[in-house]
Design the sequence.
């Protein structure tokens, strides 16, 4: 199967030199010309190499044929859910807003100067991750209760084991599970589900499968009531055998979490043959604030995309659609839709995570929701010198040149300077008439709207992709999931700048960016191949007879700005040091076919632009002052020579970070070539539903017979393609 490139990669961001004024210093200000600085203008030619998506977001047109369900009734309403955008225009011509271009230019400038990260959304929160099956063996069934004083305590159920029979690295003692199995999860009625969290009495028999042992519920009843046979027979294979051991009249607690997993066949009963072990939440065997971590974990799970909830109110527990069908969906776990579940309160049924190395309980986990919080938030893995500035006197190059605002909370009587305008202004960006025209227009237009592929949201939880080693390079592959997580700030780092290299290989594929051909391809299934490639930017219907490629998960466009369109940008600067100016000149002097990316749809290949300097007017502060003092209009202190500033910048970066630093940026600017570019998937053909999770599931597989490769995402210094099937020997 064909390998592929992930749409994004990372640039390593070394820790800046704390004592070098290029790395950290106050800005030069605007009130006077500072000695040793430069002012002037740059004229840039900006050429689109792939189509530009510059949406007019305030004037999107809703698709009245697509409706979103009412959250109360589940019935379709007239409220549209799919949006289609026009490109921004000025006087009927392409319009590239100054703010859009400035944002892209700043991101590139941050990268080449190794400036502080300007944006760090949600990096101060601990993230959740999916646990691997092995980690489930390190959990002990637990129930939260309140003591006589009203304080919460933990009741731990070790099943038929003695209290404090904690799991080893291989799981429970003798591979005998702590919780009993309650058969027939798929068939449970509303009455059965109502048993969740209630006490009962059970007759249990021991079952064996290889070395794996567990107790199975045969009869049950209320405390002090009549015992009856459990109504749902166990659907066990021939390799399950009864050992002949029984536990009769065993008290315990029902734990029923819904038909929420493909292939689920049993719920659980928590029990202790002796008394449960009772620990207050302040016990020395408990590490951390379990109540706070519980809330963070539930919030982490709820933040995962789930478009099913509004349409399934009152039916969350049910399986949706025929099992095995592509459109079928499992039931939803209680903790996702029950608002009360966010609080750790008396009556909560959970699993206590026992760390076999620390030999402590380090977390409480919802039963059958296989997520666990990482030990640290991502911000702990970013050197202080790369975090957004909080001091005016220690701004990085991009903050001095493009501007800065301290976003931390203002304290009483805080009179510090908290913002700076920046020493670069983009005065104008104008379309160059006649460029990029196809049939006399600089746009390709789609009367019914062209449906775009689903864009993936950033997922820093995928630590194999986002978290690097101490240098910011990719972590070593082939390690367990819990070994590559956010757990050791000294050995790992998120000093990695996310970049979207342009899809340079599409330049050699005929009709890849042809508007009419794309419009035809958008309605076809299977997709029309272009050699061994597909138009990865399209979302196609799963059934051409019933188009379903327009939903709230994706967007459509009425037009795009054609490749070949050119803009002219006028930039003015003042009081820049030679190295600061040289970084701007460097971005406008990249080798041929090297591009920056701008505006929307960059993961799909849109937005590649070639930036070139057409004219430079550079004035040394001392020369400008001399000309003003002489009052001689014939003196022209303007220079057009860009080389001294460019050389000063490249020499500075080489001395700070080595020759390879800028080379890595140029590799990313050269773009992807040689393999298709798309989000990870296990199929050669694009998936209309945008479901990429199977690739990550396969990559993490711990099966001995079919192990995952546990691959990490390489940085830009080694842009290695990924395999379609990251699994198997």
Sequence:
């Amino acid at each position: 199967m064909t390998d592929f490139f992930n749409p994004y990669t990372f640039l390593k961001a070394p820790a800046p030199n704390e004592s070098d004024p290029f790395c950290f210093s106050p800005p030069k200000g605007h009130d006077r010309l500072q000695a040793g600085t430069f002012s002037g203008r740059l004229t840039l030619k900006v050429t689109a190499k792939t189509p530009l998506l510059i949406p007019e977001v305030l004037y999107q047109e809703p698709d009245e044929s697509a409706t979103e369900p009412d959250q109360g009734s589940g019935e379709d309403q007239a409220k549209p859910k799919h949006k289609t955008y026009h490109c921004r225009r000025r006087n009927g011509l392409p319009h590239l807003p100054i703010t859009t271009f400035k944002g892209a230019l700043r991101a590139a400038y941050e990268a080449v100067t190794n400036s502080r990260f300007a944006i760090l959304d949600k990096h101060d929160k601990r993230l959740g991750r999916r646990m691997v099956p092995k980690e489930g063996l390190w959990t002990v069934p637990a129930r939260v209760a309140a003591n006589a004083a009203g304080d919460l305590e933990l009741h731990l159920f070790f099943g038929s084991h003695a209290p404090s029979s904690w799991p080893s690295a291989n799981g429970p003692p003798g591979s005998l599970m702590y919780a009993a199995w309650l058969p027939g999860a798929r068939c449970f009625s509303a009455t059965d589900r109502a048993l969740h969290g209630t006490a009962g009495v059970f007759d249990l028999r021991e079952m064996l499968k290889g070395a794996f042992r567990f107790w199975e519920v045969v009869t049950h009843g209320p405390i002090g009531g009549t015992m009856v046979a459990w109504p749902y027979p166990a659907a066990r294979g021939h390799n399950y055998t009864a050992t002949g051991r029984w536990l009769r009249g065993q008290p315990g607690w029902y734990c029923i979490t819904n038909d929420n997993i493909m292939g689920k066949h049993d719920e659980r009963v928590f029990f202790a043959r002796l008394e449960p072990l009772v620990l207050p939440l302040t016990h020395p065997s408990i590490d951390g604030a379990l109540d706070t971590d519980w809330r963070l974990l539930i919030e982490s799970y709820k933040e995962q995309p789930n478009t099913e909830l509004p349409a399934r109110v009152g039916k969350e527990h049910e399986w949706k659609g025929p099992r095995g069908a592509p459109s079928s969906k499992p039931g939803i776990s209680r903790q996702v839709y029950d608002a009360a579940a966010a609080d750790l309160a008396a009556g909560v049924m959970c699993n206590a995570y026992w760390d076999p190395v620390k030999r402590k309980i380090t977390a409480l986990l919802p039963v059958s929701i296989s997520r666990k919080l990482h030990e640290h938030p991502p911000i702990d893995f970013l050197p202080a010198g790369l975090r957004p500035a909080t001091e005016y006197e220690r701004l990085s190059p991009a903050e001095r040149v493009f501007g800065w605002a301290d976003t931390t909370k203002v304290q009483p009587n805080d009179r510090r300077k908290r913002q700076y305008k920046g020493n670069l202004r983009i005065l104008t960006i104008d379309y160059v008439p006649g460029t990029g025209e196809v049939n006399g227009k600089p746009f390709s237009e789609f009367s019914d709207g062209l449906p775009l592929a689903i864009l993936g949201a950033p997922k820093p939880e995928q630590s194999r992709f986002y978290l690097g080693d101490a240098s910011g390079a990719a972590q070593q592959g082939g390690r367990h999931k819990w070994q590559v997580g956010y757990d050791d700030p000294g050995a790992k780092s998120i000093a990695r700048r996310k970049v979207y290299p342009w899809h340079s290989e599409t330049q050699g594929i005929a009709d890849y960016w042809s508007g009419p051909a794309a419009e035809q391809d958008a309605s076809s299934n299977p997709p029309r191949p272009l050699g061994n490639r597909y138009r990865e930017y399209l979302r196609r219907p799963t059934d051409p007879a019933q188009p379903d490629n327009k939903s709230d998960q994706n967007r459509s466009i009425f037009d795009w700005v054609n490749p070949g369109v050119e803009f002219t940008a006028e930039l003015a600067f003042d009081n820049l040091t030679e190295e600061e100016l040289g970084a701007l000149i460097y971005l406008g002097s990249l080798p041929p076919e090297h591009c920056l990316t701008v505006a929307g749809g960059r993961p799909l290949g849109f937005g590649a632009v070639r930036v070139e300097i057409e004219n430079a007017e550079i004035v040394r502060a001392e020369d400008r002052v001399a000309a003003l003092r002489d009052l001689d209009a014939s003196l022209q202190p303007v220079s057009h020579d860009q080389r001294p500033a460019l050389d000063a910048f490249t020499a500075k970066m080489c001395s700070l970070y080595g020759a390879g630093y800028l080379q890595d940026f140029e590799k990313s600017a050269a773009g992807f070539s040689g393999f298709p570019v798309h989000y990870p998937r296990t199929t050669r053909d694009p998936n209309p539903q945008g479901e990429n999770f199977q690739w990550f599931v396969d990559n993490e597989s711990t099966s001995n017979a079919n192990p995952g490769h546990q691959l990490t995402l390489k940085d830009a210094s080694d842009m290695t393609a990924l395999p379609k099937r990251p699994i198997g020997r």
Summary: The chain has 13 helices and 32 strands.
